[in-house]
Specification:
251 residues; alpha/beta; Protein-Tyrosine Phosphatase, Chain A; 5-stranded mixed beta sheet; 12 helices
Protein backbone atom coordinates (compact mmCIF):
# COMPACT_ATOMS: atom_id res chain seq x y z
CA UNK A 1 0.00 0.00 0.00
CA UNK A 2 1.24 3.46 -0.88
CA UNK A 3 0.84 6.49 1.37
CA UNK A 4 -1.64 8.96 -0.06
CA UNK A 5 -4.71 6.72 0.05
CA UNK A 6 -7.48 7.56 2.49
CA UNK A 7 -9.24 4.19 2.49
CA UNK A 8 -6.80 1.30 2.77
CA UNK A 9 -7.35 -1.68 0.42
CA UNK A 10 -7.24 -4.59 2.86
CA UNK A 11 -8.99 -7.93 2.40
CA UNK A 12 -10.11 -8.36 6.00
CA UNK A 13 -11.16 -4.78 6.79
CA UNK A 14 -13.85 -2.63 5.18
CA UNK A 15 -13.58 0.49 7.35
CA UNK A 16 -9.82 1.02 7.48
CA UNK A 17 -8.61 4.50 6.61
CA UNK A 18 -5.67 6.80 7.11
CA UNK A 19 -6.08 10.12 8.93
CA UNK A 20 -3.47 11.71 6.68
CA UNK A 21 -4.03 14.30 3.99
CA UNK A 22 -6.27 16.75 5.85
CA UNK A 23 -5.26 20.43 5.68
CA UNK A 24 -4.68 22.15 9.02
CA UNK A 25 -5.56 25.67 10.08
CA UNK A 26 -1.89 26.69 10.16
CA UNK A 27 -1.34 25.70 6.54
CA UNK A 28 0.16 22.26 7.10
CA UNK A 29 -1.33 18.81 6.56
CA UNK A 30 -1.97 15.71 8.62
CA UNK A 31 0.65 13.06 8.01
CA UNK A 32 -0.12 9.92 6.01
CA UNK A 33 0.87 6.75 7.84
CA UNK A 34 0.75 8.35 11.29
CA UNK A 35 -2.67 7.08 12.37
CA UNK A 36 -4.97 4.47 10.85
CA UNK A 37 -8.49 3.85 12.13
CA UNK A 38 -10.44 0.66 11.54
CA UNK A 39 -12.85 -1.92 12.85
CA UNK A 40 -11.73 -4.96 14.86
CA UNK A 41 -8.97 -6.73 12.92
CA UNK A 42 -9.98 -10.26 13.83
CA UNK A 43 -10.48 -11.17 10.15
CA UNK A 44 -7.36 -9.69 8.60
CA UNK A 45 -5.39 -12.01 6.37
CA UNK A 46 -1.70 -12.79 6.52
CA UNK A 47 -1.29 -10.54 3.48
CA UNK A 48 -3.08 -7.74 5.33
CA UNK A 49 -0.67 -8.10 8.23
CA UNK A 50 2.29 -7.87 5.87
CA UNK A 51 0.76 -4.83 4.18
CA UNK A 52 0.17 -3.02 7.48
CA UNK A 53 3.73 -3.65 8.62
CA UNK A 54 5.05 -2.44 5.26
CA UNK A 55 2.81 0.63 5.64
CA UNK A 56 4.72 1.49 8.80
CA UNK A 57 2.32 0.37 11.53
CA UNK A 58 4.36 -0.14 14.69
CA UNK A 59 1.70 0.28 17.40
CA UNK A 60 -1.83 -1.09 17.77
CA UNK A 61 -4.33 0.34 20.25
CA UNK A 62 -7.45 -1.79 20.73
CA UNK A 63 -10.26 0.20 22.32
CA UNK A 64 -12.19 -2.93 23.26
CA UNK A 65 -11.85 -5.17 26.29
CA UNK A 66 -13.39 -7.99 28.30
CA UNK A 67 -15.77 -10.40 26.60
CA UNK A 68 -15.90 -8.26 23.48
CA UNK A 69 -12.19 -8.81 22.91
CA UNK A 70 -12.31 -12.45 23.98
CA UNK A 71 -15.02 -13.21 21.41
CA UNK A 72 -13.17 -11.47 18.59
CA UNK A 73 -9.42 -11.44 19.35
CA UNK A 74 -7.17 -8.94 17.63
CA UNK A 75 -4.94 -10.78 15.17
CA UNK A 76 -2.27 -8.11 15.59
CA UNK A 77 -1.86 -8.94 19.28
CA UNK A 78 1.46 -10.75 19.46
CA UNK A 79 2.46 -9.98 15.88
CA UNK A 80 6.19 -9.60 15.41
CA UNK A 81 7.42 -5.96 15.39
CA UNK A 82 3.99 -4.69 16.55
CA UNK A 83 3.55 -3.11 20.00
CA UNK A 84 0.02 -3.98 21.16
CA UNK A 85 -2.03 -2.10 23.76
CA UNK A 86 -5.47 -2.96 25.11
CA UNK A 87 -7.21 0.26 26.18
CA UNK A 88 -10.90 -0.51 26.78
CA UNK A 89 -13.20 2.48 26.66
CA UNK A 90 -15.70 0.86 28.99
CA UNK A 91 -15.21 -0.22 32.57
CA UNK A 92 -15.73 -3.99 32.76
CA UNK A 93 -17.89 -3.63 35.88
CA UNK A 94 -20.29 -1.40 33.93
CA UNK A 95 -20.49 -3.96 31.13
CA UNK A 96 -21.23 -6.73 33.63
CA UNK A 97 -23.94 -4.65 35.32
CA UNK A 98 -25.58 -4.00 31.94
CA UNK A 99 -25.55 -7.66 30.94
CA UNK A 100 -28.97 -8.98 30.04
CA UNK A 101 -30.49 -5.54 29.57
CA UNK A 102 -31.79 -4.58 26.16
CA UNK A 103 -29.68 -1.78 24.66
CA UNK A 104 -32.47 -0.59 22.37
CA UNK A 105 -34.15 2.40 23.99
CA UNK A 106 -36.73 4.80 22.61
CA UNK A 107 -34.79 7.87 23.75
CA UNK A 108 -31.34 6.69 22.66
CA UNK A 109 -29.06 9.48 21.45
CA UNK A 110 -25.58 8.52 20.24
CA UNK A 111 -24.24 12.09 20.42
CA UNK A 112 -25.22 12.21 24.11
CA UNK A 113 -23.26 8.98 24.63
CA UNK A 114 -20.22 10.50 22.96
CA UNK A 115 -20.41 13.57 25.20
CA UNK A 116 -20.81 11.39 28.27
CA UNK A 117 -17.78 9.35 27.24
CA UNK A 118 -15.45 12.32 26.77
CA UNK A 119 -16.60 13.83 30.06
CA UNK A 120 -16.39 10.68 32.16
CA UNK A 121 -13.52 8.75 30.56
CA UNK A 122 -10.73 11.29 30.55
CA UNK A 123 -8.46 8.61 32.01
CA UNK A 124 -9.08 6.47 28.93
CA UNK A 125 -8.37 9.35 26.55
CA UNK A 126 -5.19 10.18 28.50
CA UNK A 127 -3.93 6.61 28.17
CA UNK A 128 -4.68 6.33 24.45
CA UNK A 129 -3.17 9.70 23.55
CA UNK A 130 -0.05 9.06 25.63
CA UNK A 131 0.55 5.82 23.72
CA UNK A 132 0.06 7.49 20.34
CA UNK A 133 2.33 10.41 21.25
CA UNK A 134 5.09 8.00 22.26
CA UNK A 135 4.86 5.85 19.14
CA UNK A 136 7.88 5.90 16.83
CA UNK A 137 5.87 4.71 13.83
CA UNK A 138 2.36 4.44 12.51
CA UNK A 139 -0.47 3.71 14.94
CA UNK A 140 -3.52 1.61 14.16
CA UNK A 141 -6.46 2.01 16.54
CA UNK A 142 -9.73 0.13 16.47
CA UNK A 143 -12.93 -0.73 18.29
CA UNK A 144 -15.60 -3.17 17.08
CA UNK A 145 -16.89 -1.45 13.94
CA UNK A 146 -14.45 1.46 13.82
CA UNK A 147 -17.08 4.16 14.14
CA UNK A 148 -17.93 5.22 17.72
CA UNK A 149 -15.01 4.76 20.14
CA UNK A 150 -12.66 4.92 17.17
CA UNK A 151 -14.54 7.94 15.84
CA UNK A 152 -14.03 9.83 19.10
CA UNK A 153 -10.29 9.17 19.17
CA UNK A 154 -9.97 10.10 15.48
CA UNK A 155 -11.84 13.37 16.07
CA UNK A 156 -9.57 14.25 18.99
CA UNK A 157 -6.43 13.49 16.98
CA UNK A 158 -7.60 15.55 14.02
CA UNK A 159 -8.88 18.36 16.22
CA UNK A 160 -5.60 18.65 18.11
CA UNK A 161 -3.71 18.54 14.80
CA UNK A 162 -5.69 21.59 13.70
CA UNK A 163 -7.90 19.97 11.06
CA UNK A 164 -11.01 21.86 10.04
CA UNK A 165 -14.31 20.90 11.65
CA UNK A 166 -15.88 19.99 8.30
CA UNK A 167 -13.13 17.44 7.65
CA UNK A 168 -13.41 15.95 11.14
CA UNK A 169 -17.15 15.54 10.64
CA UNK A 170 -16.66 14.06 7.16
CA UNK A 171 -14.08 11.58 8.46
CA UNK A 172 -16.57 10.43 11.09
CA UNK A 173 -19.65 10.20 8.89
CA UNK A 174 -18.07 8.24 6.01
CA UNK A 175 -18.25 5.09 8.16
CA UNK A 176 -21.90 4.92 7.08
CA UNK A 177 -20.85 4.43 3.49
CA UNK A 178 -18.20 1.80 4.19
CA UNK A 179 -20.15 -0.21 6.76
CA UNK A 180 -23.56 -0.05 5.10
CA UNK A 181 -23.20 -3.28 3.03
CA UNK A 182 -22.43 -5.21 6.23
CA UNK A 183 -25.24 -3.57 8.17
CA UNK A 184 -27.76 -4.15 5.37
CA UNK A 185 -27.17 -7.88 5.72
CA UNK A 186 -27.53 -7.63 9.49
CA UNK A 187 -30.74 -5.62 9.23
CA UNK A 188 -32.30 -8.16 6.87
CA UNK A 189 -32.02 -10.82 9.55
CA UNK A 190 -33.04 -8.46 12.35
CA UNK A 191 -36.10 -7.27 10.42
CA UNK A 192 -37.38 -10.81 10.21
CA UNK A 193 -36.60 -11.56 13.85
CA UNK A 194 -37.53 -8.27 15.55
CA UNK A 195 -39.97 -6.57 13.19
CA UNK A 196 -39.85 -3.19 11.48
CA UNK A 197 -40.75 -1.12 14.56
CA UNK A 198 -37.93 -2.50 16.69
CA UNK A 199 -35.52 -2.22 13.78
CA UNK A 200 -36.24 1.51 13.60
CA UNK A 201 -35.09 1.82 17.22
CA UNK A 202 -31.92 -0.08 16.41
CA UNK A 203 -30.85 2.11 13.48
CA UNK A 204 -29.21 4.96 15.49
CA UNK A 205 -26.76 2.45 16.97
CA UNK A 206 -25.37 1.70 13.53
CA UNK A 207 -25.40 5.09 11.80
CA UNK A 208 -22.87 7.92 11.82
CA UNK A 209 -24.85 11.04 10.87
CA UNK A 210 -22.78 14.25 10.68
CA UNK A 211 -24.82 15.86 13.46
CA UNK A 212 -23.46 13.38 16.02
CA UNK A 213 -19.92 14.65 15.54
CA UNK A 214 -21.03 18.26 15.10
CA UNK A 215 -22.69 18.15 18.51
CA UNK A 216 -19.72 16.45 20.15
CA UNK A 217 -17.30 19.08 18.83
CA UNK A 218 -19.65 21.88 19.93
CA UNK A 219 -19.77 20.33 23.41
CA UNK A 220 -15.97 20.12 23.59
CA UNK A 221 -15.67 23.74 22.44
CA UNK A 222 -18.23 24.95 24.98
CA UNK A 223 -16.94 22.97 27.97
CA UNK A 224 -13.19 22.89 27.34
CA UNK A 225 -12.42 25.65 24.86
CA UNK A 226 -11.60 23.20 22.07
CA UNK A 227 -9.95 19.83 21.58
CA UNK A 228 -6.52 20.84 22.88
CA UNK A 229 -8.14 22.32 25.98
CA UNK A 230 -10.01 19.07 26.45
CA UNK A 231 -6.80 17.04 26.18
CA UNK A 232 -5.25 19.27 28.85
CA UNK A 233 -8.28 18.54 31.02
CA UNK A 234 -7.50 14.84 30.48
CA UNK A 235 -4.13 15.46 32.15
CA UNK A 236 -1.86 15.54 29.11
CA UNK A 237 1.15 17.78 29.70
CA UNK A 238 2.53 20.25 27.16
CA UNK A 239 5.36 17.94 26.11
CA UNK A 240 2.94 15.12 25.31
CA UNK A 241 0.61 17.50 23.48
CA UNK A 242 3.54 18.73 21.40
CA UNK A 243 4.71 15.21 20.57
CA UNK A 244 1.16 14.20 19.69
CA UNK A 245 0.84 17.04 17.21
CA UNK A 246 4.28 16.34 15.75
CA UNK A 247 3.23 12.73 15.25
CA UNK A 248 0.11 13.80 13.34
CA UNK A 249 1.27 16.81 11.29
CA UNK A 250 3.82 17.17 8.49
CA UNK A 251 6.82 19.42 9.04
Amino acid sequence: MQHGLRRLPLEGLINARDLGGYPTKDGKMTRYGAAVRCEAPQSITDEDMKALKAYGIKTVVDLRGGEELERHPNRLDGAKSIEYHCCPAFDESVAIAAKGKSPFKEDFDMADKYMEMVDKRKDWVHKVMTIIAASEGGVLFNCAMGKDRTGIIAALLLGHAGAFEADIIADYSVSDQYLNPLFERMWAGMREELGEETLEKVMPYFKTPPDNMRRLLAHIDAEYGGVTGYLRACGLDEDTLSRLRMHMVTE
